[in-house]
Structure prediction request, 301 residues.
Amino acid sequence: MECITRFEQMTAWLRSRPRRCRIAAVWPDDDHSLEALRRALAEGMADVLLCGRAERYAALSADFGPRAECLSADTPVAAARVATAAVRAGRADLIFKGLIASDDLLRALLDKTGGLLPPGGVLAHVAAAEVPGRQKLLLLSDVAVIPQPTLEQRRAQVGYLAGVCRRLGTERPRIALLHCTEKVSEKFPLTSDYRTLCREALDGRWGDMEMEGPMDLTSAIRPQAAAVKQLSHALGGEADALLMPDIEAGNVLYKALPLWCGARVAGMVMGAACPVVLTSRADTAQAKFDSLALAALTAAR
Prediction:
């Protein structure tokens, strides 16, 4: 597989596959969600199960026939249960959040009898950004789910980042552990977690990869900054993915990239039985479509 460095490449790769991804869309009643789903259907990269009120999706059903199937539900909460049941039954490969509160959807995912989280599983968010002037996609975790990750949750985040990097064609991912300092310090306990993660990476816990940290953002993604600071780490200012110190830093960076850098961004939740597109209800149709493409790439078999 060629290295995917742009969202358009991702969409083209999905179109080329003989088996289309199957999306379970939960209450996609807002215009942006419907537009993203319509585009996924029109480009031939996915089929859709529309979980909610059939009358709201009549136009999609009419235009795409059996590729846009309706599964009736009277409320958003009921629609979430219908979508998780579709995944459990093997009828869907990913879940897409429409006009439903994130808490309601997460409750369905975490339900002990009908949910999708395996025993001991960790839900974490992985985002991708296409930043102008950068030659490849930039991955980030976690920007939306885990407030203050424990060491075990950080291990899961690293695994998800490495896995998505490899799905994008980067066989030897470079992951930077972000902080405001380049030194392990008792003042910042999480830097001790970083030291542990780096040791585990050297021992091969996540396969062939490069991991360094703690380090600041410029040292992680700008070769000139790493050279000026005379940092000898293997990343050389060319990280493929950033492990964020906490959700506050992650969320601010994720939202700043499109606002001030003109980046295209996408995100999904990993750790359940399938990827879950958990975009904001205020996100654009483009961001929702790119998130569907990222999740479909991750789910592809």
